[in-house]
Amino acid sequence: MAPTSTPQTPFGRVLTAMVTPFTADGALDLDGAQRLATHLVDAGNDGLIINGTTGESPTTSNAEKADLVRAVVEAVGDRAHVVAGVGTNDTHHSIELARSAERVGAHGLLVVTPYYNKPPQEGLYQHFRAVADAAELPVMLYDIPGRSGVPINTETLVRLAEHPRIVANKDAKGDLGRSSWAIARSGLAWYSGDDMLNLPLLSVGAVGFVSVVGHVVTPDLRALVDAFVSGDVQKATEIHQKLLPVYTGMFRTQGVMTTKAALALQGLPAGPLRAPMVECTPEEIAQLKIDLAAGGVQL
């Protein structure tokens, strides 16, 4: 397990939600995944999220998910937290994925709010508890109402925090006021799940990031959080402002599309996307190059 784990930072401070590399014919590229994971940890990540949305989890099979976690743990598991995305909109399926992730060596679980079927808060509570009960691994909730259709309300987060294995929340709610109350009342370790709000969320009590732009600017994210934690808010703000073009550019379209394009520009493993995702157009790639260069990314 990575040495950066504390009760306050159970998964470290800087994690990247890793893409899933595929071969030219669309198969899982396990060698590429291991090389990319090693590159990201070498760059300064405390952990990696595997099989998340940026990892195209809606299009990978249960077996592929297990193979991917196993391969990444083999590559970096003694140096970083390998956190497996296991959330679906089917509690039974999520339990299966949680148990599978534990069997192949994952260090933690990321469990997103059930999407599309829009359960009530009691349904969310029971879902998250059932998944946390299914494996002996620490759990990070993932609150992203823009995708899931429902938020995890503060009262529900407070109730869930009573579970001994639910230790953190990835916040992509985009509401600093609600985040502030939930941080104060739940005591969960809070991770920004919205790169543009990385610094603002630190200011209201977050401990770190689960980032997409970490694929290309992990050293900057590390410097930002280290500066903030040490009390140098001016330096943290300067880094935040430097990264604004990267934050904007990487989300002009779906983040997985731009991330794979950026990795390809740097000669790193990525490969094609699985439908319904599509490759960036030449115009989108040209704009991405401009955005990344404006943020200091070398291509």
Task: Please tell me about this protein's structure.
The protein has 299 residues and is an alpha/beta fold. The chain has 12 helices and 8 strands. α1 packs across α2 and α9 packs antiparallel against α10 (233-249). Its EC number is 4.3.3.7. Homotetramer; dimer of dimers.
Write out key terms for the chains shown.
299 residues, alpha/beta, 12 helices, 47% helix, DapA-like, lysine biosynthesis, lyase, schiff base
Helix/strand class? alpha/beta
Secondary structure: helix percent: 40-55%
Major sheet, described briefly? 8 strands, parallel, barrel
Percent of residues in beta strands: 5-15%
> Quick one: how many beta strands?
8
Mean pLDDT: 97
Work out the radius of gyration: 18 Å
Widest β-sheet, arrangement of strands: 1-2-3-4-5-6-7-8
Helical region count? Answer: 12
Give the terminus-to-terminus CA distance.
Answer: 32 Å
Coarse shape: globular
**Low-confidence segments, ≥5 residues, pLDDT <50?**
none
Order of helices and strands: EHEHEHEHEHHEHEHEHHHH
Protein name: 4-hydroxy-tetrahydrodipicolinate synthase
Subunit structure: Homotetramer; dimer of dimers.
Catalytic activity: L-aspartate 4-semialdehyde + pyruvate = (2S,4S)-4-hydroxy-2,3,4,5-tetrahydrodipicolinate + H2O + H(+)
Pfam family, one: DHDPS
